[in-house]
Amino acid sequence: MKISRFKAALCVAGALGILHTVQADEFVGPKQGVDWNDELTKDILGESRIAPLSGSIAELLERENIVASERLSRSGVKVLKRAKRLPNVPGVAFDEATAEYWQVVEVQNPDGSTVALGKLLSPEEVQELELGAAGIAREAVTQQMSTMSDGLLLTGAAFRDGIRDSGFAELLGDESRTLNRLARGQGANECQWILNKDSSTLEDDGGTMEMVSMSMIGPDGKLYPMLYVMGPACMLATVAKEMEQIPNPGSPDAWAQAQAATRAATNKIAKLAGDELVGGHETKHIVVEGIAMKETMEDGSEVTINRMDVWLDPVYYVRRKIRMEGIIKKGRESKDFFMERENQDYRRVDDTYLYEPYKEVMKVGGILSSKEQRELAKAQKELESAKQQLAQMPASQRAMMEGMFASQMAQLDSLVSDGAATVEVITTDIEINPGFADSMITTFGGSGHSETLVRMIQTDLATLGFEPGPATGRINKATSDAISAYQASRNMAVNGAPSPELAAALQAEVGAL
Question: What is the per-residue pLDDT for 204?
């Protein structure tokens, strides 16, 4: 199974507003009582909180929305940051972590009242919030990146000219192609060559780029200052161009209107299937058919959800279990698929009114293409062979291998048996109203400069005997003090701040050692 397709399935769940957060047990205190929840639900809904089987399903769903809204509002949530990890997904590094952001948006009800719902933000929307919180316009960031890219190129050129003018031209490698392309305004072509290099290209040029990117010295023992700075310069220029081409995120108002329309349509067709136990908790099993909700994935495939089953806890008004069924279409091929998630071990988040599960267990099936099914048949044979080899190992060695790869083999076993995968999604931290300005300071090195530039400055300062601290790419007091000390010792204007000009001076001095 291609992990990109599975991650796309997770994104669909988030986009449909059903992939709620989880809270890891190592970050949560002792399990708390339910008095706080009774206080909340009784205050909002009154004493008769549990809708009878004969009651209105629309009313039950609206109660869920109202309680969820009050949990967010009374907890003072504007944005939630949820750090998650996928511990045992085939194709994903062990404990690979990611973060998702949810923004609280007010949605108007037909009666004129409003509820607060959580909207999963795209990376572009998160970036806009970060820039806005830091008081930085996107245009300013792209301009700054372009300026830093140009500054790095000037640094490389100045260093090369300095070596040549000092009478050491024989130490310089041949960089005529790069210099000629830059002179003709073809820097984009050079960047494409550098950033898209594969192993065969590296072999063709003798591994020059691979070595130069690490130390400026090529396999011939000569210096390549332009190629040394081209890597980070190209990355900055590429990111700047990509940022310029990012479309503006849609208005939260438009999303709110769409959510209101979806909720109204869902309430009309939802049916109660009965009472069921999920994880030992009583729930109302609600079925919604004929919804035809569509989502386009990054790989171009289109997902249509035709049916949704929700197991709603009428005491806490949380979803204990969700199942979606529909069709996934890519090109001319269409396949039925399902996605099921069970939320487990709900806990109160700190002393807020948020009530979230520790863990969600997801099962996804029917997402493999015909090609992937053929690959899976081959994998099945390889799995059987691996099991046979494992069985022939000494007991101690077999136990060690099973301990290391048991979960991954179980995942693959599940795939080859029914084409479905069961995955646990864990959240390691929940942050309410994260400091976006702080994240911008981290991203741009503390003073609006790239981590690459700051890291270069820190490395060169350390080489010259100053003490900037570890080369992390982030500005701290030690780095700022070291910059100030260097500037003072070289009769430069002292401001303790990184800059392309400072990097050029340091590079020239280090290169002359």
Answer: 43
